[in-house]
Amino acid sequence: MMPIRDVVIFPFMMTPFVVGRESSVHALEEALAADKKIFLATQHDASVDEPKPNEIYQVGTIVNIVQSLKLPDGNIKVLVEGIERGKILQITDTDGFMQATVRVARYTAEMNPQIEAGMQRVTSLFEQYVKLCQSLNYETMIAAVRMEDPAKLTDTIAANLQLSIEEKQELLEIFDPAERLSRVGDVLDIEIEKLNMDRTIQSRVKRQMERAQKEYYLNEKIKAIQKELGRGEKSEFDELKKKIDTAGMPKEVRDKAMQ
């Protein structure tokens, strides 16, 4: 087995990542020399270099190593495909890397009206989610969830949701496809509400900024007009004063004219 950081891998999911820890490289090389299958489980804290068994989530995914490439720095770049969930029963340290005894629980969901309705619900919700989530390609995502297997549908959607590691791990730990279908639908409802709220806030902030910019522009324009008007008035007053000064009026008459 191999602990992984910052990612939760679901069945049916293709994931590239780089393996760098010495213990992980050993585990990977062992798997490559055998059947190219390895059990991956996410560690609780990504900053821990050598996690202990109790620092690793107990539910992970058995994957097939599709590609591997040794890099010049000794790391290995791999592409894996998730096969099925598994739960750790025991971990032992052997020859410098972890080995795990894993229980695989294969659940199937027989198609019935309730399952079909659930699939229609999550597919529709996911379509709304993708439209709101700018980081996902709409055509690619919608094509990816056109399937009739509820287990594959829920795992594909879960893998592409913008969730925290803890939230994704929670979905991975639901083995029953029918239960997972319901939970994924609930998660989508919450995430769509968040995205709609974010969009409303962004729209409001944009309007406020545009209004502030417009007010600033108008204020500056008014100031400029007032400044120009002030200059004109002063210029006329100065010219009139000059004429009075040069007219040679008696003091009383001059004072009266200057009022």
Topology of helices and strands:
Blueprint: E1 2-4, E2 14-19, H1 22-33, E3 37-42, E4 59-70, E5 76-94, E6 97-103, H2 113-132, H3 138-144, H4 150-160, H5 165-172, H6 177-246, H7 251-258
Parallel strand pairs: 1-3
Antiparallel strand pairs: 2-5, 3-4, 4-5, 5-6
Helix pairs in contact: 2-4, 2-6, 4-6
Secondary structure: helix percent: 40-55%
How would you sum up the major sheet?
A: 6 strands, mixed
Strand element count: 6
DSSP strand content: 15-25%
Shape: elongated
SSE sequence, one letter per element: EEHEEEEHHHHHH
At CATH level 3, the topology of the largest domain is: Methane Monooxygenase Hydroxylase, Chain G, domain 1
Structure description:
There is one protein chain. The protein is an alpha+beta fold. The protein folds into 2 domains: 2-103, Archaeosine Trna-guanine Transglycosylase, Chain: A, domain 4; 107-254, Methane Monooxygenase Hydroxylase, Chain G, domain 1. It has helices at 22-33, 113-132, 138-144, 150-160, 165-172, 177-246, 251-258; strands at residues 2-4, 14-19, 37-42, 59-70, 76-94, 97-103. Strands 1, 2, 3, 4, 5 and 6 form a 6-stranded mixed β-sheet that branches. A hairpin with a 5-residue loop joins strand 4 (59-70) and strand 5 (76-94). Helix 2 (113-132) runs parallel beside helix 4 (150-160), helix 2 (113-132) packs parallel to helix 6 and helix 4 (150-160) runs parallel beside helix 6 (177-246). It is elongated and about 120 Å long. The model has no long low-confidence stretch (mean pLDDT 88).
